[in-house]
Amino acid sequence: MASRKSFLFYLAAILVILSTLTHEAEARRRILRGRRVMTRTYYRGLAIPAWAISLIAGIGMLLVGGILYVVMRKLVLSSETGTLNTYQPAMQNDQV
C-alpha cells in the first residue's frame, strides 16, 4: 500500500510539472448554419493557475541553488590546498 501511495504521489507531481510545460490553446471553428456563417472561438487555459506555476518555479530555483551550493562547497571550499603557502609576506626595508 505504501509503494502505491508513493507511486501516486510521484505521478501527480510529474503531471503537475508537465501541465506547466503545456501551452494555452485557442481555436476557432466555423459553423455553417444555413446562409450565414458563425465563428466560434474556443479558449482553453492552463490546468493550474499562474500563481502555482510561479510558486513551483521559485521552489525549483531554491532547490537548484541549494544543490549548487552543496556541490560548490564540496568541490571548492573543502578541497585541500596542500602544503603550498598561498600567502607570502612582502619584504620590508628595515635599513634607513
Automatic annotation (TrEMBL):
Keywords recorded for this protein, A-Z: Membrane, Signal, Transmembrane, Transmembrane helix
Protein name: Uncharacterized protein
Positions of transmembrane segments: 51-71
Signal peptide positions (record): 1-27
Domain of life of the organism encoding this protein: Eukaryota
